[in-house]
Amino acid sequence: MNKDQEGEKIVRTTVWSPGAGCHGGCGVKLHVKNGRLVKVEGDENHPWNQGRLCPRVLALTQYVYHPDRLLYPMKRAGERGEGKWTRISWDEAFDTIEKKLKEIRDQFGAESVLFCQGTGRDIGGPISFLAYAYGSPNWVQLGLAGQSCYTPRLAAMFATQGDYAVLDAGQFYEKRYDAPEWTPPKCIIVWANNPVPTCPDAFHGHWVVECMKRGAKVITVDTRTTWMASRSEIHLQIRPGTDGALALAMAHVIINEKLYDKEFVENWTFGFDELKERVQEYTPERVSAITWAPKEKIINAARLYAKSKPASIHWGLPVDQCPEGTTVAQAIAHLWCLTGNLDIPGGEVIARPAFGVTTYPFSSHELTALYGEEFVKKLTGKRIGAKVYPMVANFRGWAQPDMAVDQILTGDPYPIKAAWIQTTNILGGQAADTRKHYEALKKLDFNVVVDTFHNPTSMAVADIVLPAATFPEKESFRSWWAPLSVVVPAIKVGECKSDWEINLELARRFNPGAIRYKSVKELINDRLKPAGVTFDELAAEGSWMMPPEGHSSKPYRRYEKGLLRADGKPGFNTPTGKVEFWSKKYEEWDLDPLPYYDEPPESEVRTPELLKEYPLVMATGRRSSVYFHSEHRMIPWMREIDPDPIVEINTKTAADLGIGDGEWVYVENRRGRIKRKAKVTPTIHPKVVMVPHGWWYPETDGREPNLFGIWDINCNQLIPTGTQSRSGFGGGAYKTTLCRVRKLEKER
Ligand SMILES: Nc1nc2c(c(=O)[nH]1)N[C@H]1C(S)=C(S)[C@@H](COP(=O)(O)OP(=O)(O)OC[C@H]3O[C@@H](n4cnc5c(=O)[nH]c(N)nc54)[C@H](O)[C@@H]3O)O[C@H]1N2
Ligand SMILES: Nc1nc2c(c(=O)[nH]1)N[C@H]1C(S)=C(S)[C@@H](COP(=O)(O)OP(=O)(O)OC[C@H]3O[C@@H](n4cnc5c(=O)[nH]c(N)nc54)[C@H](O)[C@@H]3O)O[C@H]1N2
Ligand SMILES: [Mo]
């Protein structure tokens, strides 16, 4: 709702994308004076965050008006990497891009252009929209080895349960913790997730704290002693990458001690006997040796979780980044099915986009209506990785990233000629093996970067740079579970345009026959139709709305009511109509239908020789609450709180290596070495070091060869590609390579 208060306008909107970064959907009140954003407050009426905000949003004015922001389109003036740019008009930018990409399409086919995005935010809709309008099936998180963020968990759950599910903190109800339908979980396993600083995957971390206040006991599965771990009943401090074994051992205890929900298992699941047989291999004793967690703790955790009802699990990124991420996700998800916690209050609630509103047509049915049958066939025929990996062909539309970079370098089976890079800093933090991606992107004929700031990627490889609008500057919408919300523009900065605006203009030029929207608002209104609301109506109502009772996007026990399947019958949206412990889809895709454990590619078990030289496990990428990946290093308040690229190293390990807190060290492995500042702490396991990712120095020279210092400090140089799971999704070795740490005598 917009209202005037002594000349100051307050715009209620949804936080999504630049400014915060973030997957979340917090409600904010933007205070605007004379067209300028002057202050940001959390919206106390918004059910998502109830007034709370993270540091990045509180520093929003420093982001929006930062002197380094990209404010107008530019084309490269010198060689790539020279840092010479010429300002151009939007017309010239669009004309150049249209001409160049149409030439490439005519000569090599649309598939020779990669459409590259980073994580979440609101980019998925606009970029797939553009890729498909252009005709390319190659929509990819380039560099995200194994597509190992969220996709493995999603794919595993859609295959085995027919839907995604999430910890139920009452987030589908406007009244939240006071909703009469809801009860708090009695036990929560926070599994490979640090929810308070990270709030990932459409989940607000503080919701866990709200459940704790209402009695939930917590079990934490984390390599580090996080804030949450320190407040847990049980902390399983496991070896990175061994979560699959742990889940199977917990299933072993739950099944063998008959702690499972017999009624649910009997009526609603498929393959229990096979699962029972499989888990016998995973005794707590054996798994204790694999995971480093004491046997008793594993047993107690399984008992506490299974005996508490309702109980819930909230998981995070390292699940995907375990070797065989899709099978690890399957193993963990089986725990809430064994215990009958699926789609009940305080359990694991099935999460569907509010009102069934999706950002862009992804179903073959909708895509066929827009672009015809031939196009849909081509999507899976030509998509990188789809021939090798049936899961890649059948789930959602991502190309396989490890194969994509190899294909740029080899041209096999067809050449890649250009990259559209929007909302991703490939060389600054997304890509494993930074050097390989650097060489690959340099090889391409034409690269466009759409971003809010210059970064190592734009400096090194862009031919055209387009300035993206931040969330207070744009119209967008969000239907990632609930509520359904809109992003309402409040200010204008430079000549920045939103990703939807940029991509709609180009989509119209690439495919005038199919793309009929005249404005972004028209497009959004079309997407909002299932909710029977328009953008302006939602904006006027405070920017959000919850789905009603009885809708398939509203909990609970939808499998009993016939709300989950297209045929309207009770059950789940799987081939058998049941939750599948034995997955029919996995079977069809030539994967083991049952979960199993596999070792990381480098580990004390798989590569003991390597361990002699590199005795520590390098886990990377634990999040900082003041940064979103490689963003925010230039924001003064954020940098003040977290000023240096650090490595967390255990107190005893550091003492053995003669390393003091705050000293600079090398972290190195077979692939290279980086410099880091030691943070000596008892909170990390003695055999593990934690290296935060996404580091570059925006204050230093951005030109070659410095590229804002990435070759000195970006840890992704130490991480390989090509470690994807057998399914093609999951398994990027971001948490599990081996390394050593040694003191650097001179400061950086
Ligand atoms: N070592 C290591 N590396 C990792 C990880 C790890 O755990 N360890 N995690 C991985 C994971 S899970 C992910 S998802 C990736 C994420 O990787 P990315 O999503 O590529 O993350 P960023 O580095 O923040 O790059 C995003 C870029 O987009 C810009 N931007 C932000 N919002 C917008 C927008 O709305 N529009 C446009 N046009 N630009 C925008 C930002 O300024 C920034 O330059 O990183 C991966 N990298
Ligand atoms: N502030 C902020 N928030 C973010 C992001 C950001 O960059 N900054 N990035 C966003 C993105 S794209 C993502 S994917 C999420 C990720 O957020 P999370 O899912 O929370 O993932 P991480 O922070 O990588 O790791 C979570 C915890 O797992 C532990 N851990 C590391 N390896 C392992 C392992 O192998 N097993 C187990 N059990 N634990 C392990 C780490 O110590 C850490 O405390 O955060 C999102 N939110
Ligand atoms: Mo991610």
Please name the CATH architecture of the largest domain.
3-Layer(aba) Sandwich
CATH class of the largest domain: Alpha Beta
**CATH topology-level fold name of the largest domain:** Rossmann fold
Tally of strands: 28
What structural category arises from helix and sheet content? alpha/beta
| Number of discrete domains | 3
What fraction of the residues are assigned to beta strands by DSSP? 15-25%
Shape: globular
Work out the radius of gyration: 25 Å
Order the strands across the largest sheet as they lie in space.
6-5-18-17-16-7-8
Description:
The protein is 32% helix and 17% strand. It has 748 residues and is of the alpha/beta class. It has 3 domains: 74-140 and 361-478 and 484-529, Rossmann fold (3-Layer(aba) Sandwich), CATH 3.40.50.740; 160-353 and 566-588, 3-Layer(aba) Sandwich (Dimethylsulfoxide Reductase, domain 2), CATH 3.40.228; 608-743, Barwin-like endoglucanases, CATH 2.40.40. The strands form 7 sheets. Strands 6-5-18-17-16-7-8 form a 7-stranded mixed sheet. A 6-stranded mixed beta barrel has the order 23-27-24-26-25-28. Strands 1-2-3-4 form a 4-stranded antiparallel sheet. β19 (476-478) and β20 (484-487) form a beta hairpin. α4 runs parallel beside α21, α8 packs antiparallel against α11 and α8 crosses α12 (295-307). The radius of gyration is 25 Å and the shape is globular. Bound molecules: ligand MGD (2 copies) and molybdenum atom. One ligand MGD is lined by residues 17-18, 21, 118-119, 121, 123, 144, 149, 317, 422-425, 428-430, 450-453, 455, 468, 499, 620-621, 628-631, 693-694, 715-716, 719, 734.
